[in-house]
Amino acid sequence: MSQLSTFMFFSFLVVFVLVSFSPVSYGYDPLDPNGNITITWDFLADNGDTYDVRVWIYNWQLYRHVEKPGWRLSWAWRGDEVIWSMSGAETTEQGNCSRFKGQEKPHCCEKQPTIIDLMPGTPYNKQVPNCCKQGILSSLTQDPSQVTSMFQMNFNKPSVLNPSNITVPANFSLGIPGYSCSDPTQVPPSKFTTDGRRWTQVLETWNVTCIYSQFLSASAPKCCVSLSAFYSDTIVPCPKCSCNCQGLPGANCVNSDKAPSLLKLPQDDSSTQETEPVVRCSQHMCPIRIHWHVKQSYTKYWRVKVTITNYNFVKNYSQWNLVLLHPNLQSLTQVFSFNYQPLRIFGDINDTVMFWGIKYYNDMLLTHGENGNVQTEMLLHKDAGIFTFTGGWGFPRTVLFNGDECVMPSPDNYPTLPNIAAFHSSSSSFLLFVSFILSMLLR
Ligand SMILES: *[C@@H]1O[C@H](CO)[C@@H](O)[C@H](O)[C@H]1NC(C)=O
Ligand SMILES: *[C@@H]1O[C@H](CO)[C@@H](O)[C@H](O)[C@H]1NC(C)=O
Ligand SMILES: *[C@@H]1O[C@H](CO)[C@@H](O)[C@H](O)[C@H]1NC(C)=O
Ligand SMILES: *[C@@H]1O[C@H](CO)[C@@H](O)[C@H](O)[C@H]1NC(C)=O
Ligand SMILES: *[C@@H]1O[C@H](CO)[C@@H](O)[C@H](O)[C@H]1NC(C)=O
Ligand SMILES: *[C@@H]1O[C@H](CO)[C@@H](O)[C@H](O)[C@H]1NC(C)=O
Ligand SMILES: *[C@@H]1O[C@H](CO)[C@@H](O)[C@H](O)[C@H]1NC(C)=O
User: Fold this and answer.
1) Residue 161 confidence class, pLDDT cut points 50, 70, 90
2) Is the same domain home to 164 and 241?
3) CATH code assigned at 94
4) How far is the CA of 265 from the centre of ligand 6 (A)?
5) Which residue lies with its CA nearest to atom 11 of ligand 7?
6) What ligand has the least distance to the C-alpha of 148?
7) Which of residues 215, 238, 253 is at a domain's end?
8) Is residue 426 part of a domain?
9) How far is the CA of 36 from the centre of ligand 4 (A)?
10) Which residue has the higher pLDDT, 393 or 258?
11) d(CA 374, CA 339)
């Protein structure tokens, strides 16, 4: 085969692969296939005309966490239920309770109540175990002791439905953009023990499963990736318009010199609404940029520097996390200034690693106004047989910030080794380039 026909054949192959394997996601996350947030209703007691229920929220996601302003759980009652009392959380509205004439009014009479967690530091007599975290849940990898929220309530049985049946409301929502929840399903009743010897069990348990989809969460990406390497002068920036385009309607950005007035925006820490990002003007328009720099090459190791920069003027990202996928991460030898843990998704393949900040040192990614960035350097062992600097191999395959996939530059713009012009010098380096693209798409 001549060089030209080889070129055409592989171009065709690349286009075909791009068309048939374009990464469309339907809420299924290949890096966290079992990740979900589960809402569990434990019916503790039947008091004749009311029920006592304990509601749990569990975050079973490897790297996605629930940050400020926290969850806002809601559902739709099937009948005329009202919530008489609640501890460990509260509803945002009491609603219209005028049909109750007596002195004692219910906690909430809304058909679709919205429940928010209490603030930390709530008086002990209003607390229950696992409550009062402002609706913030850690991810399973970052802090397994902080993945649960719980509250307890008492509500009346609906008069219009068969009173001998336990009814569970419908249309659950976590109030966090991107999550959609299943209908409740009855599961085997939960069991509890205080001494590890005797177990008690609740009357009935119902589960609701909520799954995240980046496409439901926001129409545009939230972060982008730029690249550089010691062997090249080229700094590959984030692709233009990664998250938005300057000048499009609805694309608001602020130039750095105008920022100080914005920084005086009142910041209410107890707010229950997410603040819209106000980003610094850039050609990518993303609130977050990740820069991967191949810094140095030693005999047995190579060194990578990763910098996360916050372009959002109105948000400090607390408990931020980063997930990187690169084949050489299986031989990650040392990481400076970040915590990390490999994510074992498919048995022994540990090419995916989650990174997060060190408490009180860099676990908060400050706003751009505070010159916000955090950085790490890591050492990777050059594994014989797979390590190479050619064909863009030294750059990450996938980058996620706070569980959202970041926009990568196109591989044909990657910094190249000096004297290797992928398309002209030899067809073997071109083949390497093609196989790199294929491996990226087919991973
Ligand atoms: C939810 O997560 C739990 C724990 O990872 C898992 O056992 C369960 O199968 C998941 N449920 C769904 C519907 O994915
Ligand atoms: C739940 O939502 C669906 C669709 O919006 C609606 O038809 C149904 O009546 C709701 N269920 C309850 C109990 O309100
Ligand atoms: C409150 O509910 C009662 C009936 O329970 C109704 O008559 C009244 O109009 C409602 N008030 C408002 C402000 O919706
Ligand atoms: C409601 O209860 C009745 C009698 O207790 C039972 O026959 C019926 O199957 C129950 N319905 C549902 C939907 O559980
Ligand atoms: C129901 O949810 C709880 C909490 O997430 C979980 O431990 C339990 O396994 C779930 N039950 C089923 C049958 O999925
Ligand atoms: C971010 O944190 C810094 C330092 O703690 C604080 O001064 C600033 O007001 C915070 N900004 C926002 C938007 O929360
Ligand atoms: C990845 O897995 C291999 C073999 O299972 C192990 O030797 C290596 O230490 C792991 N690397 C990391 C960073 O955990």
Assistant:
1) low
2) no
3) 2.60.40.290
4) 11
5) 330
6) 5
7) 215
8) no
9) 31
10) 393
11) 12
Same domain, 291 and 309: yes
Query: Is residue 434 one of the residues assigned to a domain?
Result: no
Residues 225 and 160 in one domain: no
The verdict on residue 270 lying in a domain is no
* Nearest protein CA to atom 10 of ligand 2, as residue: 171
- Is 247 a member of any domain? yes
Query: How close is the Cα of 159 to the center of ligand 2, in Å?
Result: 19
Ligand 2: residue whose CA is nearest its atom 6: 171
For 385: left if phi > 0, alpha if psi spans -120 to 50, otherwise beta; the answer is left
Atom of ligand 5 lying closest to residue 56 CA: 4
**Tokens of residue 121, six digits:** 């530091």
pLDDT reported for residue 340: 96
Would you state the pLDDT for residue 418? 82
**Mean pLDDT of all residues belonging to the chain:** 84
The pLDDT, as a whole number, for residue 369 is: 63
Q: Kindly list the distances between the CA atom of residue 174 and the CA atoms of 113, 138, 276, 292, in Å, as whole numbers in the listed order.
A: 12, 15, 19, 34
Would you say the CB of residue 330 lies under 6 angstroms from ligand 7? yes
Instruction: Provide residues with CB under 6 Å of ligand 2.
Output: 76, 78, 170-171
pLDDT top residue among 319 and 262 = 319
Q: How far is CA 270 from CA 102, 116, 117, 132, 134, in A?
A: 33, 11, 11, 12, 8
Instruction: For residues 112 and 246, state if they share a domain.
Output: no
- 166 versus 154: the higher-pLDDT residue is 154
Same domain, 372 and 351: yes
Asked if 160 and 253 sit in the same domain, the reply is no
Q: What total number of domains does the chain contain?
A: 2
* Same domain? 210 vs 230: no
Instruction: Please name the residue whose Cα sits nearest to atom 7 of ligand 6.
Output: 370
**Token pair 């696992």 is at which residue?**
130
Shared domain for 52 and 194, answered yes or no, is yes
Ligand minimally distant from the alpha carbon of residue 112: 2
| DSSP-derived secondary structure for 186-248 | EESPPEEESSSS-EEE-SEEEEEEEEE-HHHH-SS-SEEEEEEETT-S--BPPPTTSS--TTS
Domain membership of residue 328 as a residue range: 221-264+275-417
